[in-house]
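User: Can you help me understand a structure? I only have the sequence.
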Amino acid sequence: MRDYDVTTLTDRELDRARRQLAASLALARPESPTRAPILARIRAVDAELARRAPRGQRGISLCSCGFGTDDPSWLDGHLFEHPGHYARPRAAR
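Assistant: Let's start by predicting it. Here is the structure, written out as tokens:
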């Protein structure tokens, strides 16, 4: 799969891109081939956000569907609304 370079985006642009990609993913059917590139872009944005986070700051928690947040209550609510989803383990720094 192709790597996406998002290092030139500002924090604000990364946040906006993440929201737009999550909306696109939510609209894509589960069997749609468009999900793969959307998920790859989400992973690139999440990795860049995690790289920019100061040491010791709470990281981004991810769901199995690609939803990510730095607020644990948002992830809990998402997992409650989608019982088939699960939280991905956090990457070690």
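Now, to help you interpret it: Strands lie at 61-62, 68-69. Residues 11-81 form one domain. Let me know which part you'd like to focus on.
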